[in-house]
Write a structure and sequence with these properties.
heterodimer, A: mainly alpha, 13 helices, B: mainly alpha, two-stranded antiparallel ribbon, about 75% helix
Chain lengths: ~290, ~325
């Protein structure tokens, strides 16, 4: 069939066809290499960031980083208060934000259906997920710092909690909607009320997914700087008082990296290395947890 | 069929379910309450920022948006310079990021050998997890010197000499400035856009692609003629998501933009953005001062900008029910 049509066509077209095929293949190959180049560029950035952090961060790395508080330039010191402050605020932020996010995600998946309220909640949650974090800092400043007369660790924690909520909402809703209807029906058929079905059947079924959401939220807020600038401000002395200004790693790094003192800058790099390795480790761990889904 | 399995108990179930119905009411109330709480939260953010910025809006009127001076001593504030800086850096960042992000998504969905896709994809996603302050430090200590010594002098000597477009690349090579900020922003949003594109490219039914391959299409032709048209809407949504991220980015920009409150023609000149100006000047603003109010008003404007962009992105990525 095709032979006859080929023979019937003039010879000239065969040349054109061959040229066309060559051009198409060339285009394909050029774009293949461009795509490869783009990927290499992307990976090169990641490698460059990690290499820079390790090279510069290890210089000031010592036991003092973990057992000494921040000191004035030229007198040594470590990052203990910043590390502890970050841990406290991240922990409270996660502890406050997670249950709210979990309930909202449950509402969206189990109760909202196609209702207008559900649509609005889903929309607003998506906006919050990508809203500039600096605005959440300004908001909490207006709400908790101005009226109560000062920067505080609790205000910082609340700003972080606001960031946690939409992240947990997203993963919770996504995970719960994956549960097969048959599983729910089995629970209901046994006479379980809806809340028992959700708590005892649905949550355990997607446990790893929910944990992943919380881990991703922790990784996100652990490195947040902008919202803490206006809420917990940072504190160069040892303080675990939640009602006073509280130190945190990102804000300390910000202050140190922008300073003219070489020893502060070096310590800033060490802090940057610690926080990045921590955040990346949590991220990788979260992915492993998710992949182990039953 | 399946619903009939649930409904028959009817009257039988009411008596033993009594304890359950109380629990149901409580749990359902909690879930609904949390949902409403999120709505109130966003509303409160908008209202608090607006109330905080109200004195500035009152003092300068709508002219606050167009004013080009930022003089804390004379208490005169205008927002156009940071608004301009925010939009210019974000749009330039998109122009730099979209081709690279597209290349990565193309590589990860069509080109890379299957065993390579997962690890490379994860590495790109990790790039998105790096905190923004790290990008700022890395940009300031690694990228800025490279820009000052190599990239900017080269561009100033070549393109900067050309007529008309030359002014865009003129001026001394500080290393910092609008262009460097856009570059760092681009690096930050590449993983977001690439991951979204990869995910939407994967939604193309394989049979479409197989049909095209069966007709003798090359990989690029399948990408350009099948995958892109099928996913166009979501791809634009992903790009808008990246733009939304870029608009509000604070610390990465603060480190490298040079922080000067003026609009310059050259992309190498220092500038500022709403977020960088707020982060820098906030510490010097006293409670109840006009300056604090002007900063909060800037925050409100930034919120409106990102809200519009994110709402469009959301609409494109998740079409309203029924579509």
């Amino acid at each position: 069939m095709s032979n006859t049509t080929m023979n019937a066509a003039p010879r000239k077209d065969l040349v054109v066809a061959r040229q066309l095929a060559a051009r198409r293949r060339r285009t394909d190959r050029i774009l293949l290499w461009l795509a490869l180049l783009a990927t290499v560029i992307g990976l090169a950035f990641l490698l460059s960031i990690i290499a820079t952090l390790l090279l510069r961060g290890l210089q000031a790395m010592s036991l003092h980083v973990f057992i000494d508080v921040t000191r004035p330039p030229g007198s040594g010191g470590g990052l203990l208060n910043a590390i502890v402050g970050s841990l406290i605020q991240t922990a409270i932020g996660t502890a406050v934000g997670t249950p709210i996010g979990l309930l909202v995600g449950t509402y969206l998946s189990e109760y909202a259906g196609k209702s207008r309220l559900g649509g609005s909640v889903r929309f607003v949650s998506d906006i919050l997920l990508s809203a500039p974090s600096i605005l959440i800092g300004l908001f909490v400043y207006q709400l908790m710092v101005l009226p109560f007369g000062g920067f505080s660790g609790i205000a910082g924690s609340m700003a972080l909690a606001v960031i946690v909520i939409p992240i947990v909402v997203r993963t919770t809703e996504d995970m719960l909607t994956l549960i097969p209807t048959a599983l729910r029906e089995a629970a209901v058929a046994l006479g379980a009320p809806k809340w028992k079905m959700i708590l005892l059947v649905c949550y355990p079924a997607v446990r790893n997914g929910l944990i992943t959401g919380v881990l991703l939220a922790v990784a996100r807020i652990a490195g947040e700087t902008a919202p803490l600038l206006f809420t917990s401000l940072g504190n160069l002395t040892w303080s675990t008082d939640l009602t006073k200004a509280m130190s945190s790693l990102p804000v300390t790094i910000y202050a140190y990296a922008g300073s003219p003192y070489p020893d502060w800058i070096a310590l800033g790099w060490t802090g940057a290395m610690l926080i990045t390795l921590g955040v990346l480790t949590i991220n990788i761990f979260a992915r492993i947890v998710l992949r182990q889904r039953n | 069929m399946s619903s009939s399995a649930i409904s028959p108990p009817g009257h039988l179930a009411t008596a033993p379910r009594k304890s359950g119905s109380t629990g149901d009411r409580i749990f359902s109330g909690l879930c609904h309450g949390a949902g409403v709480f999120v709505l109130i939260l966003l509303g409160a953010i908008i209202i608090e920022l607006f109330i905080g910025g109200l004195p500035a809006f009152r003092a300068f009127g709508i002219g606050f948006v167009w004013g080009d001076n930022w003089d804390p001593v004379a208490e005169e504030f205008g927002a156009i310079v940071p608004i301009y800086g925010t939009i210019v850096t974000s749009v330039m960042a998109l122009a730099l990021a979209v081709p690279i992000a597209f290349g990565i998504a193309y590589f990860l969905t069509e080109i890379a050998p299957v065993p390579m896709r997962q690890p490379v994809g994860t590495a790109i996603e990790l790039l998105a997890a790096v905190p923004s302050i790290i990008y700022g430090m890395w940009g300031f200590f690694v990228i800025v010197p490279v820009m000052a010594q190599y990239v900017q002098p080269a561009l100033i000597d070549s393109i900067g000499e050309l007529p008309l477009i030359g002014v865009l690349f003129a001026g001394p090579p500080f290393g910092t400035g609008i262009f460097t900020a856009a570059l760092i922003l681009a690096i930050m949003i590449i993983p977001f856009i690439a991951a979204t594109m990869r995910d939407v490219f994967r939604t193309v039914p394989p049979v479409f692609k197989e049909s095209a391959y069966g007709l003798g299409c090359t990989r690029w032709e399948v990408m350009w003629n099948i995958v892109i048209p099928y996913t166009r809407r979501s791809v634009v949504g992903g790009i808008m998501l990246g733009l939304g991220r870029a608009l509000g980015e604070t610390l990465a920009v603060t480190f490298v933009i040079g922080n000067a409150n003026r609009i310059a023609t050259s992309v190498f000149a220092p500038g500022n953005t709403i977020a960088s100006l707020v982060a820098l000047e906030f510490g010097e603003a006293e409670a109840d001062s006009l300056k604090l109010s002007a900063l909060l008003a800037l925050g409100f404007i930034l919120f409106v900008l990102s809200f519009i962009v994110l709402a469009i992105s959301r609409f494109l990525l998740r079409p309203p029910a029924g579509q």
